[in-house]
Amino acid sequence: MFTGCGVVTGQNQYLTRDAVRPNPELEGQSCRNAGQPAVVNISSPLKQAPLPVPPPALKLGQEGFKKVCRTEEDSPCPFPGLASGVLEMRVKEGSKIRNLMGFAMARMQGEKCLSGGGLRQVVFTGSGRAVTKTITCAEIMKRKVGSLHQLTKLRYKVVKEVWESSEGGASEMTVHRTVPSISILLSKDPLDPQEPGYQPPENLTALWEEKEAVESSSQTACKRPLGPLPYSSFTHSDESEVSGMAWEFAISQPPDGSVFSYLEEWTMSSRKAVTSFSMHSIRHLLVLSSLCRFISANGTETVMDRAHQLMTKYPLIDAHNDIATSLRADYHNNLSEIDLRNLSHLTTDITRLKAGHVQAQMFAAFVLCPAQDKDAVRLTLEQIDVIRRMCTEHQELELVTSTEELENAEKRYKIACLISIEGGHSIDSSLPTLRMFYRLGVRSMTITHNCNTPWAKTSSNLYTFYQSLDNSLTSFGKAVVEEMNRLGMIVDISHTSWDMASAVLNHTKAPVIFSHSSSYFICRSHRNVPDWLLHELKQNGGLIMVNFHTNFVSCKDKANIFQVADHFDHIKKVIGAESIGFGADFEGAPTFPQGLDDVSKYPHLIQELLRRNWTENDLANVLRRNFLRVFREVERVRDQLNVTLPSETQIPANEVQNLCRLNLEVARKLQQIPPSCTFNLTSGRTSSPTCRAQSGAADLLILAAVLLLSSMFID
């Protein structure tokens, strides 16, 4: 039993049922010693040879002796920091796998939990001959539940056995054995991928096996932490070499350096083969553990190891995440009600950002298109506020506004937060509003969302705003792009029509990005980018940040990780890896491709791209270098334009269909207030009683208008 693990004891029925039962006469006593027992400690120093054997008269398991009591020493928890309520399943040699799995599955799936939601973690432990059965239980659980993170620990423990003789002489003896022990933690929540013994979820196994069958029917790669290896691999006899391997792989040695004096049959299983091993000594266990890790690192698993290593060296920058929208919809921006480190019902939280090697994330301050010409500015300010609070109230996050700050955050192992505005309707056709957003930390703005603005056209026909607008960039639209260049704000042309995107590319002085778009060649959606436009983007020096939205990946309701990789492959073929980045759009889509379910899954995509022979340099560019290059160039253009005064361009009044927009000239003459038109965010409809653009002195203005009209009639 572990100490300090915080495990639940609901499985005691199995601990009692499956434990070796003591002699009924000894019940209530701690392994009673009758007379003078013969104590045999079957252990010896590591360098002793040959292996010691018990005296002939005391050979265990032969006629005349029977085991009446077996106890294992308490071991410290191999997984420190586990939350309370973790299920521990102690597997014994005589355990029934069906019974163990029936109980464990019921608890993990919530059938026997008062909360109904199921437990999040389970620990399977076994020692001696139960090791194989422990591994089997873990593998069954992974297949049944799916998407489980695994952490495996090997260690050794001392077992005390009491044997009773029915013959004369020594009536009882105590045997101390040092046996191997394995502990496997399975977790629905992400675990630290840098922890030795970590194995990511294998929800893509079937898909990978299908592709492997097509590519090569002869591959027999092992993906298990303890997988098969040929018997001929046991060639190590140098004890110093074995000790070195134990140190390198952090494998615990027995407290007394003892060796095994009995044969232990282990059966290791994997996807492709089953191999049996005879463990003659502790050296074989060390070699087995080391070689299994070696094989795991040189089979299919090595690609994942390379992915993690690459992402550790070049942590990822993603250009689009809509968690702020979810915080508003689910919690009304009340951060005190949530734990941002664990939001399992969402696709994004701090724990999974770290597991996905995300070093910088651009969070979108998004408001719905129906707020256009109403209270879009106020709503955008509220979204900027929640992003700023989110990134300043959590020590793992750091709000940044420049490439220098972004890179400094990486040196401090912080997740850098960038703020973007998703949709030009948020500035209410006002350059001063754009400048104030920049001062609040906004460093990118999408020219349109799914609605036209008075000065730019979207690719969507979802809304009816400004339908008479043509595909050219209006004079005010050009002023917006110019002011963004002057400020050092990244121009984002995702969501815009193709002609509008082309017009922006031809007018801007700085590189632009498609923050969350994919290839039209792979999926013919209006939200994706055709090849001819990719070539214009290449000439501009900008980026297309590939979107994971299922409908834009496959143009169907379902997609998988391989189809996302197809987008990367095609764009690379057309304009090169130096023009690609990540803009997954997590929290901005109803579904995501299989294998890319949340922000922790980025390494799976890097693994797939490595399998497609993408080079380390290509992936380093895609992961972060490309975005940093574009951001630096935007800052360079800003510095060149630092002598340029802020633009005072105003949009012509006749171009804005805004009943809530106060006409100052008319108001000065008549002191009239525009009709009420507050936008109700919940219902999506306009409502009374007041217009959000209206000042707090409305009653006074109405009174003044009445007095003015009265005086006119009196005269």
Automatic annotation (TrEMBL):
The DNA/RNA-binding protein Alba-like domain, residue ranges: 88-157
Coiled coil: none
Entries under InterPro entries matching the protein: Alba-like_dom_sf, Dipep_AS, DNA/RNA-bd_Alba-like, Metal_Hydrolase, Pept_M19
One Gene Ontology cellular component annotation held by this UniProt entry: side of membrane
GO biological process annotation, one example: proteolysis
Compartments, record wording: Membrane
Family membership: Belongs to the histone-like Alba family.
Protein name per the record: Dipeptidase
